[in-house]
Amino acid sequence: MTDTEPLLAHVPVTQLSEAPSEWMLFLHGILGSKSNWRSIARRLVAKQPGLGALLVDLRMHGNSRGLAPPHTVESAARDVLALEAKLGAPVRAVLGHSFGGKVALAYARARNDDALRDVWVIDSLPGARATRRGSEGTLLVIELLRSLGSRFESREKFVEQVLAHGLARDLATFLAMNLERDATGDAFVLRLDLDAITEMLDDYFAQDLWPVVEHPPGRARIHLVVGGKSGLFEPTDLERARAAVAALPERVFLTVFPDAGHWIHTEAPDELLRLVSDAARTAD
Question: How many CA atoms lie within 13 A of 170 on its CB side?
Fold first, then answer.
């Protein structure tokens, strides 16, 4: 990232009574945006005095557009580092979901200092996946979005088109969050660069970040949180995660929510909030 490139779009969530003394970053998944984690962030900040949450639009998502290629996990992590440098308080924790989970690991590796306390990897497999197993639905969604055209009469019409292709209403509504009015104000367009997102996904599947989990940088604690019903982690992946925990029981943690799928923050929000809050309270 060059000095002339824009910073990532972001929204702070803080307690009204005081400025935060430290930050926790929230990084969404592919096709998502900074608003995806707003509910969890608000509840966490209310429970943790001095903590501020920063909801981030990763490159080429939401309002973080116009960043130069290459569009990779490493580039996304460097974007986050550039944003961090502009904050008035230190970043002590980072949480990433899915694609954002690998960005969180790459960010921790790039920082490699003792100030980063916790890295939360939410249903994101650290290893490479040449077969793209577990993400077939995401790839189909991208192809569907390519096929729908670029302009939509209304959000409702967009949702109708997505539903007509057999997708669930919750997913259609989630995708509609990426719509914005065009310059005329008479129609809606997708604020997603699907070519850039495909490039990021290609790199996401190619990256092996298990070494970051097995050798945490600085003093960071790595928290792997898995949705038991998501199907992303195979038994061999869980075995590798448990081996990392056994080798470094005070630095690596594994939590499986057996009844949750990929969207843990919407399927088990109370349990996830409790997990993150407890870790924050036990930090050095």
Answer: 4
